Input
Amino acid sequence: MSLQVRSQVSLKPYNSFGVDVKARLFAEAHSDADVREALTYAQSHDVPLLVIGGGSNLLLTADIQALVLRMASRGIRVLSDDGSKVVIEAEAGEPWHPFVQHTLMQGLSGLENLSLIPGTVGAAPMQNIGAYGVEIKDVFAGLTALDRQSGELREFNLEECNFAYRDSLFKQEPGRWLILRVRFTLDRKAHLHLEYGPVRQRLTEQGIEHPTASDVSQAICSIRSEKLPDPAVLGNAGSFFKNPLVSAVLAATLKGQYPDLVAYAQPDGQVKLAAGWLIERAGWKGFREADAGVHKLQALVLVNYGGATGLQLLDLAQRIQKDISERFQVDLEMEPNRY
Ligand code: FAD
Ligand code: NAP
Output
C-alpha cells in the first residue's frame, strides 16, 4: 500500500482561490498504481473520488465529501523525433509552466504562447487551455486516460477529444475520464503566432525583430505578470467567465450602442465578445464586498482578498451574470469547475 490517505484535510493550499474548505479524505497519486488504489479505496469506502491537479480552475463552495486525489505523477519523455517534429509525453502531475519551459529549452516550439498558465499537464486537455491565439488542440498528439466506469485504459486521438473553445469531451463527461498522461507534437522549426493581443508590440518594445520561441514565451510571461494577479499573492482562478459567442445580429446591435465594444468575428459567423470589457463597462472592475472582489486591473478575474468563501465568490459571480444579461442581453458562462 503506497497510497497515503488522510482525513479532514484543508484544501486551502490546493486551490488557487485559497478558499478554506476541507476534504473528507485526501491523497496524492504519484503513479498509475496509486490512481488505481485510490479508485479501489473510494469504492470500498463508498465515497466519490474527485481528481484535482493544481487547483487553479476550481471554485470550492463547501467541504468536499469525497476522496480528493491530487495528481502528482511526474515524468517527461520523447517518444519520437524525426529531426523536425518531436512527440513528447508528460505525466498528468507535471506542472504545466515548467513543462513548457522544458520543451523550449530542448529547442522545441509550439507551447510558447501557453507560458505561465498555472496547473498541471493532466488538466490541460479538460478545457483545451488556450492563450494568445493558441490552444493545446493545435499541438495535441494524444492522451492516455483511465475510464473510471470500466477501469480500462483508453488512448484518445485529437478527433476523439471533442476539443472546442475552453471545452472538451473530458469536461462534457465530468468524473468519467482520469487523464494519466498527455502527448504533444512540437517543432524544431518555430512557427510563431504573434498577431494576438500585445505580443508583437511587446517584442518590438524589447528590440526583438526576429524572435525565437523562447523570446515569445518571455514576452508573454512579462505581459501576463503585469496584468494578472499571482495566486500566491491574491487568490484567483484566472478568467472567471468564458468570452461569450453571440450572433452577428446581437453583436451589431451592441456595437451600435457601444462603439468601443471589443468583438472578434469567428469563422462560423458568430462573434466573440470580450467578457472583461462587458464587466468593466458595467462598472464592476475593482468592486469589492468583504473579501470577494473583481480585480482592479482585469475585470474578468474574480479575487479572494483572504477570507472569502466559495459561496461569496459564487454570489458575486451570479450578480455579475445577472447584471450583464440585463444590460447587454449576453449570458456569461462561468469557467472554473464548481464543487
Ligand atoms: P484543477 O483546477 O485542479 O482542475 C480543473 C478540472 O480538471 C477539475 O474539474 C478537475 O477535476 C479536472 N482534472 C484535473 N486533473 C485531472 C486529470 N488528471 N484527469 C481528469 N480530470 C482532471 N486557463 C486557460 O485556458 N488559459 C489561460 O491563459 C489561463 N490562465 C490562468 C491564469 C491564472 C492566474 C489562473 C489562476 C488560472 C488560469 N487558467 C487559464 C485556468 C487554469 O490554469 C487552467 O484551466 C489549468 O489547466 C487548470 O489546471 P489544474 O491542474 O490547476 O486543474
Ligand atoms: P486581452 O489580450 O486583453 O484580450 C481580451 C480578450 O479578447 C481575450 O480574452 C481574447 O479572447 C480576445 N482577443 C484578443 N485578441 C484577439 C484576437 N486577435 N482574436 C480573437 N480574440 C482576441 O486578454 P487577456 O485577458 O490579457 O488574456 C490574454 C490571453 O490569455 C487570452 O487568450 C486569454 O484567454 C488568456 N487567459 C486566459 C485565462 C483563463 O483563466 N482562461 C486567464 C488569463 C489569460 P480569448 O480569451 O478567447 O483568447
Q: What stands out?
A: The radius of gyration is 21 Å. The longest strand covers residues 177-187. Helices lie at 32-44, 96-105, 169-172, 199-205, 213-227, 248-257, 275-281, 310-328.
